Amino acid sequence: MQTALRNDPNVISIAKMRFRAVKCGKCGAKMFPTSLLKPHLTRHRRREHWLKLELSKLRQTMTHMRDFAQYG
């Protein structure tokens, strides 16, 4: 079986059957059916939001520790 990557990067080929796929712009994952892209992108956004919150907490803790060490 010849890979579909050489012909069309948006096609997934399984057992000589070809399916149209969509590629995620953030991570490059290909998925079929194309309706899975929206939940996939939602997971990216949720993960980014979680990471921002965790970094904010860490930044606040480090600032507090720095202030305590300086003026403590």
Polypeptide structure, described:
- The chain is of the alpha+beta class.
- The protein has one domain (11-71).
- The chain contains 1 helix and 4 strands; from the N terminus they run ββββα.
- The chain has one helix at residues 37-71; strands spanning 11-14, 17-20, 22-23, 30-31.
- The strands form 2 sheets. The chain has a two-stranded antiparallel sheet. A two-stranded antiparallel sheet has the order 3-4.
- β1 and β2 (17-20) form a beta hairpin.
- It starts with 10 loop residues before the first strand and ends with a helix.
Descriptive key words:
alpha+beta; two-stranded antiparallel sheet
SSE diagram, text form:
Layout: E1 11-14, E2 17-20, E3 22-23, E4 30-31, H1 37-71
Antiparallel strand pairs: 1-2, 3-4
